[in-house]
Amino acid sequence: MIDAKYLDVKNLSVHFKGRFRIFRGHGEGVWALKSVSFSVGRGETLSVVGESGSGKTTLLRSLLGLVTSTDGNVELWGRAIGTMSADELLAARRRCGYIIQDPYSSLPPTLTVLGAVLEPWNVVHGRGGHGVAKAKALLSELKLPEELWGARVRYSLSGGQRQRVAVARALILAPELLLCDEPTAMQDVSTRGEVLDVLNRRVRSGMSMVLVTHDLLLARHAASRAIVLYKGEIVESGDTSELLERPTHSYTRALLAALPKL
Ligand SMILES: Nc1ncnc2c1ncn2[C@@H]1O[C@H](COP(=O)(O)OP(=O)(O)O)[C@@H](O)[C@H]1O
Ligand SMILES: [Mg+2]
Fold first, then answer.
1. What are the residue boundaries of the structural domains of the chain, listed by start?
2. Starting at the edge strand that comes first in sequence, how are the strands of the sheet with 79-80 ordered?
3. Of 52, 121, 192, 228, which has the most beta carbons under 10 Å away?
4. Which ligand is nearest to the CA of 16?
């Protein structure tokens, strides 16, 4: 079969009514996304770069139908999510992994590290099978020390470790499309590369990835293509290394100028 687009986004716009409408009186709301279009094929990574508030999280959420779009279209594997039945949407979501931005709220606090990674597997495949072996292999690959595997997620882990548990949890079901929201924001410099290597390895074996980050260097390390979001609009897109060498939009130049000099 010819490589169909895993993900195709056309003119996606999302408008939120103001969060604090009562206080604002005539809340005019905010356009979190304005006519955003891009596509991602099999085994491809797209980085989404932008400052805080530029619409990155809203974009990921609308790809899964968790945010209702105001206009435009999202297709997963050739089907518009707006035309899917509830069951079809669930089935499409099951083919996707989603690492949400905040590893504190996304992980079940009472579970152990191993239990948290196993949970999605048990929900889909039932207990048993290769689940435990897969979970352990992922935790090793992500370099989470074995003495932490039995620890409670809430009390015993640093932010970076928790984030790596979230990555293992998303990968255990071998998603075909992985959406990651700043998956390495809490890692220090040395483990940031390790986490990205684990993700890149999956991409080389066919997984597609949308990587949200405000770190242009991470984007370059991950992806051949990037889009730059600014106030909900794509202001620049193209090959990541070219964006870094020849940023055309003043905002991309500002992002670059803000990088620490190595
Ligand atoms: N549920 C919501 N209700 C109202 N406004 C929202 C909601 N979610 C996000 N926004 C607004 O949409 C804009 C984009 O937010 P977000 O997608 O979280 O940006 P980013 O992830 O790039 O920081 C911001 O102005 C934010 O305040
Ligand atoms: Mg965000």
1. 1-95+176-262, 101-174
2. 30-41, 5-16, 71-76, 79-80
3. 228
4. 1
**pLDDT tens digits, residue range 224-242?**
899 999 999 999 999 888 8
* Residue 87: Cβ within 10 Å count: 8
Whose Cα sits closest to atom 9 in ligand 1?
58
Q: Write the pLDDT tens digit of every residue in 62-113.
A: 999 999 999 999 999 999 999 999 999 999 999 999 998 876 777 888 899 9
CATH for the 1-95+176-262 domain, from 3.40.50.300, 3.40.640.10, 3.40.50.150, 3.40.50.2000: 3.40.50.300
Mutate to test the pocket of ligand 1, among 12, 15, 16 (most ligand atoms within 8 A of CB): 16
Position in ligand 1 atom list of the atom nearest CA 181? 21
In 42-93, at which residue ranges do the beta strands (DSSP E only) sit?
A: 45-49, 71-76, 79-80
Question: How many other CB atoms are found less than 10 A from the CB of residue 38?
Answer: 18
Atom of ligand 1 minimally distant from the CA of 17: 4
Rounded to whole angstroms, how far apart are CA atoms 150 and 167?
Answer: 17
Could you tell me if 216 and 259 are in contact, meaning their C-beta atoms sit under 8 angstroms apart? Answer: yes
Do the Cβ atoms of 149 and 114 come closer than 8 Å?
A: yes
Report the distance separating Cα 213 and Cα 216, nearest Å.
7
Specify the residue with its C-alpha closest to ligand 1, atom 27. 53
Write down the pTM of the prediction.
0.91
Check if 52 has its Cβ closer than 6 Å to any atom of ligand 1: yes
| 30 CB within 6 A, ligand 1 | yes
